[in-house]
Amino acid sequence: MTRITASLAGVVAVILAIVIQSHAVPGTLGWWERDIPPPASSSAAATSPAEPIPTTSPDNCNQAFFTSILPPEASLENIAAVPDGGSHGEGKANIAYPTDPTNLPALCAVTVNVTSSPSSSYRFGLFLPMPTEWSGRFLAVGNGGFAGGINWLDMAPGTHYGMATVSSDLGHNGSVIDTSWAINQPEKKTDWGWRALHGTVMLGKKLTAAYYGSDITYSYYSGCSTGGRQGLREIQEFPDSFNGVLVGAPAWWTSHLNNYFTQLGMYNLPNTSDSYIPTPLLQVVADEVVRQCDLADGLQDGIIIRPDLCTFNSSLLLCPSNETTPTCLTNPQLSTLAKIYSSHHHETTGELIYPGLTLGSEAQWWAIIGNTNGVPSPFGIGYQRNFLFDNATWNYTALYSDFVVDLAERLDPGQATADHYDISAYKSRGGKIILYHGLADGLVPTKGSELYYQRTMQYFGDETTEFFKMFLIPGMQHCWASPAGVDAPWNIGGAFQAGVMGSGVWSVPGFEGSEEHDALVALRKWVEEGREVRQLVATSWRAGMNASSGVRRQRKVCARYLLTGHIASPGCLRARVALPGKNTRVALGGAPLPSRQLQPRQHARHLTTETSPANPSTTTSSPAAAAPFRKQLKEQAKALKKSGHKKKKSSDNQTVPGWELTVGIEIHAQLNTAHKLFSPAATSFNDPPNTHVAPFDLALPGSQPLFQPATLIPAVRAALALNCSIQPVSRFDRKHYFHWDQPSGYQITQFYEPFAKDGFITLYARDGIAAEDGEEIKVGIKQVQMEQDTAKTTAQPGDVQWLDFNRVGVPLIEIITLPEIHHPATAAALVRKVQMVLASVDACVSGLEEGGLRADVNVSVRRTDDPSGKLGTRTEIKNLSSFKAVEDAIIAERDRQIKLLEEGGEVKGETRGWSLGSTETRRLRGKEGEVDYRYMPDPDLGPVVIGGDLVARLRETMGVLPDQEADQLMERYNLSAKDALSLMLLDGGARIQYFYNVLDSLEERLAADGQVVPEGAEHATLAANWCLHELGKLTDSSSTSSDPDVLEGLAMTPLGESPLVPSSSLAAILHHLYSRTITAKVAKDLLWAVYRGEIPEGETTGYIDTHGLWFKELSEEEYAKLADEVIHGEDKVLGEFLRWKQGKMKAYPQGKLMFLVGKMMRGGPEGRVEAAGAERVLRRRIEEVYLPELERGE
Asked: Are the C-beta atoms of 963 and 644 separated by less than 8 Å?
């Protein structure tokens, strides 16, 4: 009997490190060591006397000012005015970060101590540039591993961009591998896990705003490894903290990754065993991996760009006659090697614990696979001893197993996990994420970041790339650098990357401020100017970390998602190489090279080279190759996105040259009925188990099926919406099979004579079909049949299964498409479209991800030049639970079948499964044919006769279908295709009805004012945007808020009404906003007040009156007078605008403009200054009045 297991209860996250500063291999130079001479101030303690205050120092850089604004739990530890070109830090007293930054701009350096609990506290440092240099931005930087210490060195680069910059010590002072501080200290663990960073950000922002007397315009974050995990967790729990985060190699899955380190050690240890791989042999493995995998990307340059395309043959490393030599491995050692590359799954449940290490990452393995002392990595056993068990002598050899991971998931020490993939709240406020990871990372496996990105895509689908970009950097190790001899471009301005090149370095040396080369600048442009980040340029230098030696290589790195079948565009595979005396170019083809015979290992490798200018400041990337046709279609799709004419997938993995994919889909949907299909028992989804069960549901002797005619109504509505022909007579059949969830030993279905046939569904580009399918595609529906559901199984420990028979007999329809789908994206779009159609006719209980819909896909492939024209052998993938899972599973199975056939194998008909986070399907069982199921007519049930009058009546009363409604929303109300579809999908279809209610009420109010209300005018677009986006912010915030007064959801009814935000209340707010009697800020505040129950329905206007919230905007003359007052004494700021006008600055000083606008907002009469009006007048006066006066010397 097939064993059924339960999923692991929660996933947790976080971990590791980025710099192992005290764990070197004897006789080698530690890869983490920074070749940076300590500055003169590096030995100074944190409380050393401040430098003399420069003449440009602001008056606020003093103890009295900061002490007066600190909360009671915080105290000022140190304050120093740092002169231009100066240094600041704590030197060797800071164990984790002993190197102080140099070459700082003039700034105020503040150190604060915060008591976080009776037994814990944390410190943070804050760099505040001079007020005239502040850009209005705030930057927080992260830490590494278990390190405790203020990361002054990583704070420095942000100050050169005029950003106020902050870092926390996370509540202790220690190295990246030291966990001794955590034992029996739950509060300190919490500080490390999340509290210290969050508190630092909140208080740091407060101090920054007070110091400058101005609100922060934009907030950012940058961190790698543990720092990457910190940033992800902060936006998951507190989405308002940042506008953009730059996350490198995030150690996000703490409970799994740290335990995985111990597992890796157990693979390789003890160091006396035959299977032990000593450190010197890792270089032998690395060399062989490069030899076999270098050309997989089509470029022989010593850098592995596409490890996923390489089939590594480790047997070529086998020693002759199994003899041990320094240049080969034995069979037991090869077995260890295979385990390290493979993903590790739970020994009992089969759930993924952590994906394996990547080909090309071997140079850093020594730090995590067990050292010469015979113990696993301190990142593993330190976590278990001091975080998880609070037992410094815990014996891993006797006690470690996969069940330790289960315990870590339940306890989550420090609540450090960053595994919330639904970050809608962050997305809805316009937040952006750039995640990068080195493909040669031998500490935090690169596949872990791919897993996080994939799970995020489960929630957002194609929308993921609108706010979340992932860059995989070939040849880069953990956070920075590349293995010796590989010399891959790696610097993109990420965390730690400037500091490892020198204490006074910032950005990417030679390319400071370039959004193409510096990811932090690119992130800022994306957030503030909407300039999507599609590629970055990574850089390396001739002499390692010495930028003055000149650029060695540069490579374009494109945002991409690696999954089997994804091919990166050629322009992102080119590397520029600068070598003395070399002047050759290498031309790349767009397709991967065919498989080749491996040559003897003695053959030398050859690097292809390409010249770059000697001056790094003028170096540019090599020109991109002409984009393939599919790429051109994709770019056209983005340009037409608002109109919905081209809604296209972001990946280019829809086809494989020389092969045709064929997909058929079976969708099972629970019908919206009051009773089960063959018994009067009520349908139940949330009631206690086994409380709605009739005798027939349990197949008790003597019980018989009793067809419930009412179940036909939603079934026929669904079939009509799918353009099917309703059959006058249909019959039920028995499908025989034995399983514990089917008491009768058979399922009643309609195999031979279903009630509906010959339908179709039309998919458009806006639905997300593949670009290869053009503007629209019609997919045939073979039949729609009624059948009964099975019992619900819940796995328990000890191979025990609990059964809930409430679900037995619940009516389903099975929708079977014809095998007419040839692209994975189109298959996912079809399932999504079917869900919308079923919801629009009220036929289905709930959607795919809520369990009311289940999709099975049948996949086959055949060669495009096959003269027979026969379809290939199909396999079935069962129970896919999300739209993205449908697409990913099809891609994985397609690629598996193609690989099998190309190797001369045979595809067998079988049933396969798909798990969240997988990149390949897994075999479940051999495929049973019709004979095995022994279909037969059910002798206890007569034929079902459906009258033509019933069909006609249901057809007439079906209402508006999704395509018609989407067209109306786009044409009449000027909504984008994306917003139109979102309105239709939210709240089970109730949000769109709510919009119509709001619009009706708003138009009544406008008409009562005597305003002419044309159909589809600006007021309707305003209402739609608020119903979609502003209401969404309420629910997104509530899902992450710790405020007990914040409610959950909108409690939307099917008729489109919310008791929390009545449609009339929102209409009243929009009436005043549209009439310009209140500001947008006031309108948003009013919406929150309604949501919290502070404004009863019908009392919005009275509330505005009582609180004096009416908007009376200043006149142009009053704005001009206010601008004149604000500009007084700001000659230095005006000088920035003059330099821009004279062509001495590339970018308009928008930050300085907003600084002055902020002063106008604060200095003007409360409630009468609007930011847009102030900016408009101020900009005009700068150009027409102030700059001419400055040029004349007045």
From this structure: no
The answer to whether 10 and 60 have CB atoms below 8 angstroms apart is no
Give the H/E segment covering residue 340.
helix 331-341
How many whole angstroms separate alpha carbon 33 and alpha carbon 44? 21
144: helix, strand or coil: coil
Cα-Cα-Cα-Cα dihedral sign, residues 515, 493, 523, 590: positive
Q: What are the tens digits of pLDDT across the range 66-119?
A: 999 999 999 999 999 999 999 999 999 999 999 999 999 999 999 999 999 999
**Burial of 674: CB neighbours in 10 Å, binned 0-12, 13-18, 19+:** exposed
DSSP per residue over 680-702, as a string? SPBP-SSSPTTSS--GGGGT-TT
pLDDT given at position 26: 30
How far apart, in whole angstroms, are the C-alpha atoms of residue 102 and residue 157? 10
498-517 residue pLDDT tens: 999 999 999 999 999 999 99
Q: Give the span between the Cα atoms of 519 and 513, in whole angstroms.
A: 10
Dist CA 87 CA 106 (whole Å): 10
Residues 80, 50 contacting (CB under 8 angstroms): yes
Distance CA 953, CA 968 (A): 25
The answer to whether residues 1162 and 213 touch, using CB atoms and an 8 Å cutoff, is yes
Q: Are 477 and 438 spatial neighbours (Cβ–Cβ below 8 Å)?
A: yes
How many degrees, rounded to 5, is the angle at CA 390 between CA 229 and CA 113? 55
Q: What digits encode the pLDDT tens for the residues 249-293?
A: 999 999 999 999 999 999 999 999 999 999 999 999 999 999 999
Nearest to 148 by CA among 165, 123, 166: 123
Task: Return the structure tokens found at 401.
Answer: 């197993």
The pairing of beta strand 944-945 with beta strand 746-749:
unpaired
Nearest to 448 by CA among 232, 193, 281, 234: 232
Q: What is the DSSP letter of 212?
A: H
Q: What angle do CA 940, 945, 950 make, to 5 degrees?
A: 140
Give the C-alpha separation, 989 to 521, whole Å. 40
Lookup: tokens for 21: 């500063």
For 1135, list phi and psi in degrees, rounded to 5: -60, -30
**Residue 861: beta bridge partners?**
661
**Two tokens at 141?**
């930087």
Rounded Cα distance between 192 and 145, Å, is 10
Which is it for strands 163-168 and 137-141: parallel, antiparallel or unpaired? parallel
Tokens coding 354: 């952590």
What's residue 296's pLDDT? 72
Token couple for 257: 């990754």
Mode of pairing for the β-strands spanning 936-937 and 733-736: antiparallel
**CA 13 to CA 390: how far, in whole Å?**
19
Residues 6+ apart with CB under 8 A from 369: 264, 265, 267, 268, 277, 340, 377
Q: What angle do CA 195, 196, 197 make, to 5 degrees?
A: 95
Q: Please state whether the predicted TM-score (pTM) of the whole model is above 0.85.
A: no
For tokens 């704590």, name the residue: 90
Three-state secondary structure call for residue 911 = strand
Query: Of 830, 532, 769, nearest to 646 (Cα)?
Result: 769
- Tokens at 642, concatenated: 């608002």
565 three-class SS: coil
Q: Would you say residue 623 has pLDDT above 50?
A: no
- Strand 218-224 with 344-345, pairing: unpaired
Report the amino acid identity of residue 388. L
d(CA 792, CA 1035): 31
- Closest alpha carbon to 376 in 356, 396, 391, 361: 396
| E strand intervals along 176-293 | 218-224, 244-248
Q: For residue 904, is it left (φ>0), alpha (ψ between -120 and 50) or beta?
A: left
Which among 758, 734, 760, 759 has a CA at the least distance from the CA of 748? Answer: 734
Highest average pLDDT, of 334-338, 670-674, 933-937, 1181-1185, comes from 334-338
